[in-house]
Amino acid sequence: MQSSSHRLRDMEQHHPLLSAGGDVEAGSLAAEVIVGGPHSGHAAGNRTLWFIQDSCGMVCAAMTWFLVLYAEFVVNFVMLLPAKNFWYSLLNGATFNSLAVLALASHLRTMLTDPGAVPKGNATKEYMESLQLKPGEVIYKCPKCCSIKPERAHHCSICKRCIRKMDHHCPWVNNCVGEKNQRFFVLFTMYIALISAHALGLSGMHFFTCVKVQWNECSEFSPGVSVLLLIFLCLEAVLFLTFTAVMFGTQIHSICNDETEIERLKNEKPTWERRMRWEGMKAVFGGPPSLLWCNPFTGLRLRRLMLLAQGRRGGSEFSV
User: Fold this and answer.
1) What residue ranges carry the coiled-coil annotation (predicted)?
2) 79 to each of 96, 193, 218, 225, 235, how far by Cα in Å?
3) What is the mean pLDDT of residues 1-25?
């Protein structure tokens, strides 16, 4: 029977046998914000907020919020509020703003949710012995973050962690899309595509209405400013609609085929039991089909948020 040290040396050359469902989440604190005092240590593990400290990702995430809020401004103050039809303004305003709130909430949940990170540095002799491996059984060790790598996990050079069922790293949400936050990313792309299509439709209706009357009667802004704001909104909406619609389609395709984008690009042969179509959708979104699938606030606990708020008053510590 091989010793534990022998297994550790051999890990990097063997196929992983540790299943992705293994519960090895304890101590997953790296590359995230630890809410609490500087001496809280691992006791703060249940009060952590995942956040990647990547400058490019933070800029892209801030740009995403800016562009959504810009669309809110143009739709509300340039098109809907000056409209003479009250019900037209009310219904479209309620629809657009509700979708925008859901899009931003989905963005936050994607960005601040642990995508399924494997604990860093858990490939120790003590942990190897606790696994009670059978003779000849081997598991895979990631040489970059020194962690035991579950099946279907891949290392992200930006997050500096191995991520379970990693699909890709998206700078627009400043996070990896993985096992635990894929549903929020799918909702984010869906709601952004919907508000983009809605904004395009409202812009077309506004142009058509203003052509028949004086531009000064269509908006409180000058005609030149109104046209520039609408043109930029249309360009933004077309780009966002194209990008997010494609991403939404690829994500649904990946879920229904139980194959991540990395696995597809690497042409990895599945060694796991695939969950096809509805089974894959249920695994990602949780439970049978319902309106809860479209709710980005699902699983958000008020008590946990209150604990996070209390921890912030005591100071915060960044752990990389």
Assistant:
1) none
2) 12, 20, 8, 13, 16
3) 39
Mean pLDDT of 249-278: 80
Instruction: Count CB atoms within 10 A of the CB of residue 17.
Output: 14
> Residue by residue, what is the 3-state secondary structure of the chain?
CCCHHHHHHHHHHCCCCCCCCCCCCCCCCCCEEEECCCCCHHHHHHHEECCCCCHHHHHHHHHHHHHHHHHHHHHHHHHHCCCCCHHHHHHHHHHHHHHHHHHHHHHHHHHHCCCCECCCCCCCHHHHHHCCCCCCCCCEEECCCCEEECCCEEEECCCCEEEECCCEEECCCCEEECCCCHHHHHHHHHHHHHHHHHHHHHHHHHHHHHHHCCHHHCCCCCHHHHHHHHHHHHHHHHHHHHHHHHHHHHHHHHHHHCCCHHHHHCCCCCCCCCCCCHHHHHHHHCCCCCHHHHCCCCCCCHHHHHHHHHHHHCCEEEEC
Q: What is the rounded CA–CA span in Å between residue 165 and residue 198?
A: 33
Ramachandran angles phi, psi of 214, nearest 5°: -75, 140
Distance from C-alpha of 24 to C-alpha of 114, rounded to nearest angstrom: 13
| Cβ atoms of 34 and 318 closer than 8 Å | yes
Looking at per-residue pLDDT, the higher value among 320 and 86 belongs to 86
Out of 159, 170, 210, 218, which one is annotated catalytic? 170
Say how far apart CA 219 and CA 204 lie, in whole Å: 15
What pLDDT score does 305 carry? 58
User: Bridge-partner residues for 153, per DSSP?
Assistant: 164
Active site residue 170: yes
| Burial class for 273, CB neighbours closer than 10 Å (0-12, 13-18, 19+) | exposed
pTM of this prediction?
0.79
Whether the pLDDT of residue 25 is over 90: the answer is: no
- For residue 173, which amino acid is it? V
pLDDT at 37 over 50: no
